[in-house]
């Protein structure tokens, strides 16, 4: 009986079993990453940011760093704390120009955009010792951008296990009240020049 079973089709490898990690992409990390900060903006509707004067990323550089939560000002782009962080130290790299798409920025802007992203990672490693990062740009409202009209790159520090509780406490005052403190810490650690 067992000899017979050994020759049946049941003994062939089950090709219907698929390992998720054999495919490109990580099943759930991005869903957890983008939702909280996105919702804070999305509540107000997308239309309000079509007007450049109402754009939070155009308005921020016009205010003092402490008020706008800016940690560094470059030539073509600046770095600001996300007002609605997924994790403490969640930074955004923004060109000064009000352009929506990654293909809209010039070579010079792209270079500084990339350099500021690298420096942001180095600074966050220095001050907060994260175990990893999520970097990314949501392009268009369909791509999940909260402020689709003004390009911005997310730099999110990650620590092991943070996904278990930060989505909950990120909505509380406790995180908001430390934003000024986090801004100062990151700004102080940002290399001069
Ligand atoms: Zn803008």
UniProtKB/TrEMBL annotation:
Chain ranges for the short sequence motif Histidine triad motif as given in the UniProt record: 150-154
Polar residues composition-biased segments: 1-11
InterPro entries according to UniProt: AP-4-A_phosphorylase (IPR052908), FHIT (IPR039383), HIT-like (IPR011146), HIT-like_sf (IPR036265)
Ranges for region Disordered: 1-20
Domain of life of the organism encoding this protein: Bacteria
Domain HIT: 57-165
Keyword field: Nucleotide-binding
Name of the featured protein: HIT domain-containing protein
Originating species: Arthrobacter hankyongi
